[in-house]
Design goal:
Layout: H1 2-27, H2 40-63, H3 66-69, H4 72-83, H5 98-105, H6 107-120, H7 123-129, H8 132-156, H9 162-175, H10 177-189, H11 195-202, H12 220-231, H13 234-254, E1 264-268, H14 274-286, E2 290-292, H15 318-323, H16 334-350, H17 352-356, E3 358-367, H18 385-405, E4 414-419, H19 427-438, H20 442-456, E5 461-466, E6 473-477, E7 487-488, E8 491-493, E9 503-506, E10 509-524, E11 527-537, E12 540-545, H21 552-562, E13 572-578, H22 581-590, H23 598-601, E14 606-611, E15 630-631, H24 646-649, E16 654-658, E17 664-670, E18 676-681, E19 684-685, H25 695-701
Parallel strand pairs: 1-2, 1-3, 3-4, 7-15
Antiparallel strand pairs: 5-6, 5-17, 6-10, 8-9, 9-13, 10-11, 11-12, 13-14, 14-16, 17-18, 18-19
Helix pairs in contact: 1-2, 1-8, 2-7, 5-6, 6-9, 8-9, 10-16, 13-14, 16-18, 19-22, 22-25
Length: 702
């Protein structure tokens, strides 16, 4: 098999080498239709073939040991050239840019060939991993499409049938779905798949050349991050790693899950943090867990998407990634979805023993990049209404399959966040401040949060209103407590799975949860939203809008894709009150509130999640607060359907949206008899026993 793949790769390499010279004569055609320029197709194939040659040359460089002898400057230049055509300043004239491709090749061919150019970029990772199969099949796809254009030119003097080209792309995605899913599942659960782990554990981390071994884009962010961590004393790096891994361990303990049943943990992080990750790997081994560290998907066959899930380097161009988020629209039909689901199950079945002992992810998030405000392009591929429904169905069924093999009631997670150098000139001060946030004394917050819970547990509903420009006006219904001495609605969350402290949260009753949620500016899943509004009726989204684009319809599409994830509606899966006023004051001091990840931002005011509850797939687990009371608010009217129709119970998304303290007019707990318990008024805690939380505000004003 390996010999055959090597031969296929060799044939593909030789043919790619010939294309730049022959394309001009083989494909020269007069413009045929609006938007097609003379010689455009010849230029597309010649220029893209040259880029592929560059990737193949890099593969030879890696295979020949070039990484060992090259200087840091040489490696940086080689890395830049690999990503050059999609970097800002070059992307405008790149074939990977749908707008440029459509302007030169027309809409049908432009969209398809732009997708092809983007897909071929996954060759970079394959070159560094020396993945012969992945390289061979992508060269063959490019050559097959090229030959279709050559034959059409020679036989008919024109262009191929666009549908035949689309079908070729379809069958590529379909035929290799099984192979790629099996490879991905193996990488997700098998700690012997150790490409990244070996770099982390075996490299001299003081020599920053190691960063270029991953086959990712390396920007100044990653280099500065690694340099900075190298300067920190070992005890501080150990504290960072200990906080992270201990959060993971405690996450199992507080939910009554047995971590001793598990053998692996998935470390997800951004490059530059290798020094901390090395200590984390050692910590996890001491508690019986091997680290699984896989690359964030690069290809449409792997599930490439805007949000990164795995390890990743710098983002060469966020607009490029946004432009290609829905490339599967080219071939996403019922047959393809069913085939992929079948392959998904088969792939899980082949690693079921490894999946059963997998503990879940431990995530290190980075924040501080300039908030990305995407440009909407009509040339981008988008899912149509039928495809959106198929995408929702696929996520639901794939999520259920994953839960079958990695049981929700047995797994856990942890997330911790750190700033990246791009956050500004005060990076080192901000990093030190975040370290303090991540290690705040949870016992202080635990006691104060219990007072909040005691008040909230008296309520039938909670009223939340904004102030100033914030138009929030919400009523959140709560579950009735049958035995208030032993039951509670809100979980007392300190710093285990979600670092830093602290919040109290619940799953609202949907019926009677009504009103408007509004934030003037928020950063969700890597995207910035302006004047985001969501209206709820009986706990479900009834309307939504934002002000990112001039066209209201474009704003709705943006939210439908990135907040609702193509669902017609979503329930309010969580209502929480964040208590980390120290974090809010810290963010205000440095002017970074709009750059904070939701992990920290959700602790800086009330937040509301649309999608699943926080107890998805673990509703039957008994969860108790430190005071011994059992949490009863684990279900809502959607999740309870799991007992009848699990396919309707889970949405496979959960997006938190926070109202900052300075936009918060009130949070009031309202008892069944109408009497009220003020919790927050004009951005300050007014509930007796919570005064300590206002101290951060007072210190800020001194």
């Amino acid at each position: 098999m390996e010999q055959e793949l090597q031969e296929r790769l060799a044939l593909g390499r030789e043919r790619i080498r010939q294309i730049p010279e022959e394309a001009e004569t083989a494909l020269a055609v007069e413009p045929q239709g609006e938007g097609r320029s003379p010689e455009a197709f010849a230029r597309y194939f010649a220029e893209t073939a040259r880029i592929l040659q560059r990737f193949l040359e890099e593969s030879d460089f890696v295979a020949g040991g070039g990484l060992d002898g090259a200087s840091l400057e040489e490696l940086a230049e080689r890395n830049r050239k690999l990503y050059e055509d999609v970097l800002p300043g070059f992307y405008e004239k790149s074939w990977a840019n749908p707008r440029f491709a459509v302007s030169e090749l027309g809409k049908e061919f432009g969209q398809m060939l732009s997708f092809l150019a983007a897909e071929e970029r996954s060759l970079i990772a394959s070159a560094y991993e020396q993945d012969v199969q992945s390289m061979a099949i992508r060269l063959e796809l490019f050559l097959e499409i090229y030959q279709m254009f050559v034959c059409a030119r020679q036989e008919e003097g024109g262009l191929p049938d666009p549908e035949q080209v689309r079908q070729t792309l379809y069958w590529f995605a379909s035929d290799y779905s099984e192979t790629m899913l099996e490879k991905n599942m193996r990488a997700s659960f098998d700690w012997k798949e150790d490409f990244a782990l070996r770099i982390i554990m075996d490299s001299d981390l003081s020599d920053l050349r190691y960063l270029y071994r991953f086959g990712e884009y390396i920007s100044e962010n990653e280099l500065r991050m690694a340099r900075y961590l190298n300067r920190l004393p070992e005890d501080q790096i150990r504290l960072m790693a200990d906080t992270y891994t201990e959060g993971y361990r405690i996450g199992f303990a507080v939910t009554g899950k047995d971590i001793s049943k598990k053998r692996s943990v998935n470390i997800r992080y951004f490059l530059g943090f290798e020094r901390m990750v090395r200590f984390a790997v050692e910590n996890f081994r001491r508690i019986g867990l091997e680290a699984v560290i896989y690359r964030a998907p690069q290809s449409i066959l792997e599930g490439r998407k805007l949000g990164k899930n795995g390890y990743y380097g710098g983002i060469a161009n966020r607009q490029f990634e946004y432009d290609h988020e829905y490339d599967q629209a080219l071939f996403y039909d019922k047959r393809y979805v069913n085939h992929r689901l079948e392959n998904y199950r088969n792939a899980l079945e082949k690693v079921k023993e490894l999946a059963a002992v997998h503990g879940g992810p431990a995530v290190i998030e980075g924040f501080g990049e300039t908030p990305f405000e995407p440009e909407a392009k009509e040339e981008n591929l988008r899912l149509n209404e039928e495809q959106q429904k198929l995408a929702v169905a696929f996520r639901t069924k794939a999520g259920a399959l994953m839960n079958e093999y990695v049981k929700g009631e047995e797994r856990s997670f942890t997330i911790i966040a750190f700033p990246v150098p791009e956050i500004g000139e005060n990076f080192e001060e901000i990093f030190a401040g975040v370290m303090k946030l991540n290690t705040l004394d949870y016992r202080l917050y635990q006691g104060i949060q219990q007072k909040l819970i005691d008040a909230l547990d008296q309520a039938g509903y909670v009223r939340i209103k904004g102030m100033g420009e914030n138009r929030t006006d919400l009523r959140v219904a709560l579950h009735p407590l049958q035995d208030p001495e032993r039951e509670t609605n809100f979980e007392n969350c300190v710093a285990d799975v979600n670092i830093p402290v602290g919040e109290v949260f619940t799953s609202p009753v949907l019926k009677g949860t009504d009103g408007k949620l509004h934030v003037t500016k928020v950063y969700l899943n890597g995207l910035k939203y302006l004047d985001l509004e969501i209206d709820f009726q009986d706990g479900r989204i009834s309307d939504y809008a934002c002000a990112n684009f001039d066209d209201p319809e474009e704003n709705r599409k943006f939210m439908a894709e990135n907040v609702l994830f193509h669902h017609d509606t979503l329930p309010m899966g969580e209502f929480a009150i964040g208590t980390n006023t120290t974090a809010w004051v810290f963010a205000s001091k440095y002017g970074i509130a709009d750059k904070l990840p939701i992990l920290i931002a959700e602790k800086m005011g009330p937040h509301f999640a649309v999608g699943d509850t926080c107890y998805s797939h673990e509703e039957e687990l008994v969860t108790c607060n430190p005071d011994g009371k059992r949490l009863i608010a684990k279900d809502n009217e959607v999740s309870i359907l799991r007992t009848q129709d699990p396919g309707k119970a889970y949405l496979n998304c959960h997006t938190d949206i926070t109202i900052p303290y300075d936009e918060l007019g009130e949070i009031t707990a309202v008892r069944e008899d109408g009497t009220q318990i003020p919790i927050i008024h004009n951005g300050r805690f007014v509930l007796p026993g919570c005064e300590e939380l206002n101290r951060a505000f007072e210190e800020e004003s001194v």
